[in-house]
C-alpha cells in the first residue's frame, strides 16, 4: 500500500472530514450557548438602562413641585449618564440647569423648562404618546407641605446667619415678580392666561 494510492488518499481525507465533523458537532452547542448567553446579557443591560431612565423620570415627576429636594437633585445629576445617547434630553437638562443657576428666575420659566425636560425624557422612553404637556404641569402640592417647607427654609437661613454672623435681611428687601418686571428681566414674561395650553 502506497501513500500515493488514490484509495489511501481518499481514506485519509475521509478520516479528516469525519474528525472535523465530530469537532464541529461538539462545538456547535457550545457556540449556540455562548451566543444565547451574550444575547441574554445584552437584553439584561438594556432592561437595566431603561429601568435607570424610568427611575430618574418618575423621581423628577414626583418632585417637580419641589425640584430642589434631595431625591430630585440626585436624579437630575444622573441624567447625563442615564440619557447619554439622547441629545434632546441632555439639551433640555442643560437649559434647566442654566435656569437653576441663575438669580431671580420667574417661576413660569422654571416650570416651562422642567416640563420640557420631562417631555423629552418621555419621548426617549417611548411613553410620550400617552402624556400631554398639561400632564406635566398638573401637580398636587398641599398647603401644609408648602408651609412646612417654608418653615424649614426659614430655619435653615436663620441657622446659617447665626453661624456666619450675618444679619437677617429686612422683610421689605425681597424682590418680587412685580419688582423684577419693573426693573427689567432677561426672562420672557409669563404666558397670557387666555392663551390655550400647549399639548404634546
Describe this structure in words.
Residues 179-200 are annotated as: Disordered. This protein is an all-alpha fold and 200 residues long. The protein has helices at 6-62, 70-77, 79-82, 87-100, 107-125, 133-137, 143-164, 177-183. Helix 1 (6-62) packs antiparallel against helix 2 and helix 1 packs antiparallel against helix 5.
Q: Helix segment count?
A: 8
How many strands appear in the DSSP assignment? 0
Rounded to the nearest angstrom, the radius of gyration is 31 Å
Protein structure class: mainly alpha
Percentage of residues assigned to helices: 55-70%
The proportion of residues in beta strands is under 5%
Order of helices and strands: HHHHHHHH
Low-confidence stretches: 171-182, 195-200
**Mean pLDDT across every amino acid position:** 77
What is the domain tally? Answer: 1
Query: Can you tell me the overall shape?
Result: elongated
Query: What's the main sheet like?
Result: none
Q: Between the first and last Cα atoms, what is the distance in angstroms? A: 86 Å
Pfam families: DUF6680
InterPro entries: DUF6680
Protein name: DUF6680 domain-containing protein
Organism: Gluconacetobacter azotocaptans
Amino acid at each position: 500500500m502506497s501513500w500515493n494510492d488514490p484509495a489511501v488518499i481518499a481514506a485519509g481525507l475521509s478520516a479528516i472530514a469525519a474528525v472535523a465533523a465530530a469537532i464541529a458537532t461538539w462545538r456547535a452547542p457550545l457556540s449556540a450557548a455562548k451566543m444565547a448567553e451574550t444575547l441574554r446579557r445584552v437584553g439584561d443591560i438594556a432592561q437595566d438602562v431603561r429601568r435607570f431612565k424610568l427611575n430618574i423620570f418618575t423621581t423628577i415627576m414626583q418632585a417637580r413641585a419641589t425640584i430642589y429636594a434631595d431625591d430630585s437633585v440626585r436624579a437630575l445629576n444622573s441624567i447625563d449618564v442615564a440619557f447619554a445617547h439622547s441629545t434632546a434630553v441632555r439639551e433640555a437638562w442643560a437649559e434647566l440647569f442654566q435656569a437653576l443657576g441663575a438669580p431671580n428666575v420667574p417661576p413660569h420659566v422654571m416650570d416651562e423648562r422642567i416640563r420640557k425636560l420631562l417631555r423629552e425624557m418621555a419621548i426617549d422612553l417611548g411613553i410620550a404618546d400617552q402624556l400631554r404637556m398639561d400632564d406635566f404641569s398638573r401637580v398636587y402640592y398641599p398647603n401644609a407641605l408648602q408651609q412646612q417647607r417654608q418653615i424649614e427654609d426659614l430655619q435653615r437661613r436663620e441657622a446659617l446667619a447665626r453661624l456666619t454672623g450675618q444679619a437677617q435681611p429686612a422683610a421689605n428687601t425681597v424682590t418680587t415678580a412685580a419688582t423684577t418686571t419693573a426693573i427689567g428681566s432677561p426672562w420672557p414674561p409669563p404666558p397670557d392666561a387666555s392663551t390655550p395650553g400647549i399639548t404634546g
